[in-house]
Design a protein that fits this description.
The complex is a heterodimer of chains A (about 110) and B (about 240).
Chain A: H1 2-16, H2 29-49, H3 54-78, H4 83-107
Helix pairs in contact in A: 2-3, 2-4
Chain B: H1 4-12, H2 16-49, H3 56-111, E1 117-127, H4 135-147, E2 152-155, E3 158-160, E4 166-169, E5 172-175, E6 178-180, E7 184-189, H5 192-200, H6 205-211, E8 216-227
Antiparallel strand pairs in B: 1-7, 1-8, 2-3, 2-7, 4-5, 5-6
Chain lengths: ~110, ~240
């Protein structure tokens, strides 16, 4: 229950203070969000499979988000802006895999 | 996540402190996720509206297009400025021409006696009870008045212009073919003192009238003489203008 409430509280904060994020973050924030989503679905999968660990979840969430943003930042510095696509593909595939695992677990199909 | 307490309860009941800490960490993490999501969605909306998610090359293209358009419009502004300057120059010229033409027209209208005029001048009355004054006297008078700078002349209701003639004989004077009777009233517009002086010079109009028996002249200088009669515009049948050299 607490996690649901805090999720909505975070959304509320984001809606209220969306302008608090600098404009120059534009290329990095979506990657961080992709990584965060991947971590959350991964956590949900682990929870369903009974291998969930608080520490792993929190650390992987934060490190994935930061690393994804850093990767894009490095790509822009190196002149390979399209690295964002690689990040999107990787996290997209992983999110799909996690969702597929969750589906299999829930519906046994 | 709702099922968490059910599955986790037996496992973590032994260490509640760690469990609640883990819960809080997860809650904070998810709050961060919510914050990131909401922020990103809102930012994306704004960016889409501002074209800011365009790729750099697209932006470059848009910039080039806008620069081209801006250049085009700038040159258009210059063109239009030039045209405006030309047009206003032409207008000023036209105004000057029209003013010139209007002044010329006015002068010609006065000269041809087409309009009533008013101004300083003299008013003379020739009395000729014995009928001895002939048309030559009038011709001389007009000559003298013109010499003295008269700008408009009228004799007994007939406007004197370039084509006016004096014919007939004493008692039956014809001015431009129109009979006039004594006493003759002559009005002239010009510098009144000069005109009066011209009439009185030795051997002038006054003297020559005095030579005719019974004739006399009364001259009065007026601040404002009004010449109301107008002459008909002469139609030119034979004379044609030729190119000025």
């Amino acid at each position: 229950m607490l996690v649901i409430v805090s999720l909505f509280a975070g959304i509320g904060l984001g809606v209220a203070f969306h302008s608090a994020v600098p404009f120059s973050w534009a290329p990095y924030l979506p990657m961080a969000v992709m990584a965060a989503l991947d971590s959350v679905f991964g956590g949900l999968r682990a929870r369903l499979e009974g291998t969930f660990d608080d520490r792993v979840f929190v650390v992987s969430f934060l490190s994935n988000a930061v690393l994804a943003a850093l990767l894009v930042w490095a790509g822009i510095r190196l002149g390979v802006q399209d690295i964002a696509i690689a990040v999107v593909v990787v996290f997209g595939v992983r999110i799909f895999q996690n969702l597929a695992a969750i589906r299999r677990f829930l519906f046994h199909a | 996540m709702k099922i968490r307490p059910e599955t986790d309860a037996p496992e973590t009941s032994g260490r509640p402190r760690s469990r609640s800490r883990g819960q809080i960490a997860i809650a904070l993490t998810l709050a961060l996720l919510g914050f990131l999501l909401a922020t990103q969605l809102r930012a994306q909306q704004g960016l889409t509206q501002r074209l800011s998610i365009e790729r750099e090359s697209d932006l470059g293209q848009i910039l080039t297009q806008l620069t081209d358009r801006s250049d085009q419009l700038s040159s258009e502004i210059v063109d239009l400025r030039v045209k405006l300057a030309q047009a206003s120059g032409t207008q000023a010229q036209q105004h000057a021409l029209i003013d010139d033409a209007r002044q010329q027209l006015q002068a010609l209208q006065i000269l041809l006696g087409l309009v009533p005029v008013k101004g300083p001048g003299i008013d003379m009355v020739f009395s000729d009870p014995q009928g001895t004054v002939g048309p030559d006297v009038f011709l001389d008078t007009v000559q003298e008045l013109r010499d003295a700078g008269a700008e408009a002349i009228e004799i007994s209701g007939v406007r004197i212009v370039a084509s006016t003639s004096f014919t007939g004989s004493p008692r039956a004077i014809l001015v431009n073919g129109q009979p006039v009777r004594a006493p003759y009233e002559i009005k002239a517009i010009g510098q009144s003192s000069t005109l009066a002086e011209a009439m009185r010079i030795p051997g002038g109009v006054v003297d020559s009238l005095a030579a005719h028996s019974g004739a006399s002249v009364r001259i009065s200088e007026e601040g404002s003489v009004s010449i109301q009669h107008v002459s008909a515009l002469q139609e030119f049948v034979h004379a044609r203008p030729t190119a000025r050299r």
